[in-house]
Design brief:
By secondary structure, this protein is α+β, with helices and mostly antiparallel strands. It has one domain: Alpha-D-Glucose-1,6-Bisphosphate, Chain A, domain 4 (2-Layer Sandwich). The protein has helices at about 5-10, 20-30, 100-120, 125-140; strands at about 10-15, 35-40, 40-50, 55-65, 70-80, 85-90. It has a 6-stranded antiparallel β-sheet. Helix 2 (about 20-30) crosses helix 3. Residues about 130-145 have low confidence and may be disordered.
């Protein structure tokens, strides 16, 4: 049986390990005022609630639908999907009118969140860090140049 919130929620599977995803979210929440972080025009309101028994996490979200509409109160649930993937589900916490603007905003929020998390998970290294790592593993002092 399908619940009404199932039809109005948004799901994604991100190719990011759960622990990496949570570390990126935690570091984002520490930078915001009172645990709040803007993501586009949407607001993630932390701290993240962790359920250690089930291995899940919840974050309160305010979904912006447009300049003339109030934000929708939503809940972002994060679950470990596999060893290398994380499931994200955005669920409304209030009654919503299923308009095109609502669905656009929900899909846009999850897409931008996943893009941000993937960018944080794969931070490119500077070329000089590769040189230092090779020098240390070869047994030479890390700060010496040939």
């Amino acid at each position: 049986m399908t619940r009404p919130t199932d039809l109005l929620s948004f799901q994604r599977i991100a190719n990011i390990p759960f622990d990496t995803c949570m570390a990126a979210l935690d570091s984002r929440q520490l930078t915001g005022h009172d645990g709040e972080q803007l993501l586009g025009k949407n607001l993630l309101h932390g701290p993240a609630e962790r359920d250690h028994r089930f291995g899940t996490c919840r974050i309160e979200v305010r979904l912006a639908r447009g300049p003339l509409r109030p934000p929708v109160r939503m809940r972002l649930e994060i679950h470990q999907w596999s060893a290398t993937a994380t499931a994200l589900e955005l669920i409304p916490c209030q009654r919503v009118r299923p308009s095109a603007a609502y669905f656009r905003a929900g899909h846009r929020l999850l897409d931008s969140l996943i893009g941000t998390l993937q960018a944080r998970a794969t931070v490119p290294q500077r070329p000089d860090q590769d040189y230092l790592r090779a020098a240390v593993s070869a047994g030479s002092p890390a700060l010496s140049h040939p």
